[in-house]
Amino acid sequence: MFDVGIDVGSVSINCVVIDESGKIVKEYPYLRHFGRFLEEVQKTIAKVYEDFSKDKIKSVSITGNHGKVISEKLGIPYEFDSITQVVGACRLVPGVRTIISMGGQDACLFRIAYHDGDWELESFTMNGPCAAGTGSFIDQQAERLSSSIYGEEIDFSYDHIEKTLKDFIELGMKSKDPAPVACRCTVFTKSDMIHL
After folding, report:
1. Cα distances (angstroms) measured from residue 98 to each of 58, 108, 116, 176
2. Strands (E), 12-156
3. CA distance 159 to 16
4. What ranges do the domains of the chain cover?
5. What is the mean pLDDT of each run of 10 residues along the chain (196 residues)?
6. What pLDDT is stored for residue 132 in this prediction?
7. Three-state SS for 68?
8. Displacement of CA 121 from its chain's centroid (Å)
9. In this predicted model, what pLDDT tens digit does every residue of 48-89 receive, in sequence order?
């Protein structure tokens, strides 16, 4: 029997299948939902049932920014994403002390302490209403800079966006002379990147 965990964030869907021992047996590719999160979650669940047979799935649970809405619509259990991130990290990496989570809208930092073999949350911090330091800013800059790679005509298909981000990262990693950009505020970072 298997359990399925689905994270429906502001930008993407992530899905894992876990066996009875708690081992991850399948991790589905990161999937951008482009705002169609209910439809994409239903497709993801159908794919899991196809891959594992519905009668072998003990439970499907959900988390993430859109998790509560999906939970109510599909009648499946929901857990708050900060809890799932910490519990998951502590299970996968026993002794972990620091967890950094960066999503499309939120960036979080968790510090974990240990006492007599048990962990507890020592501190937690997250960004405020500004999306600075999150994936959405990186996406925006990749889209803006893509015109110098692909031309002015922008293709918003899933495959093209994924290729753009992949190329954006590869080009950045090849840089021998990184551009000096502000690191504390994306408004200043964006201003520093205008010349790129």
Report:
1. 31, 10, 18, 30
2. 12-18, 24-32, 57-63, 98-102, 107-115, 118-126
3. 22
4. 2-79, 135-193
5. 94 93 91 88 96 95 93 94 89 90 82 90 80 66 69 69 78 79 68 68
6. 60
7. helix
8. 21
9. 999 999 999 999 999 998 999 999 999 999 998 888 899 989
- DSSP label at residue 178: P
Is the backbone of residue 151 left (phi > 0), alpha (psi -120 to 50) or beta?
left
- Rounded distance, CA 12 to CA 181, Å? 27
What DSSP character marks residue 78? Answer: B
Strands 24-32 and 57-63: unpaired
For helices 135-150 and 158-174, angle between their N-to-C axes, nearest 10 degrees: 90
**Fold (CATH) for 2-79:** Nucleotidyltransferase; domain 5 (3.30.420)
Q: What are the beta bridge partners of residue 110?
A: 99, 124
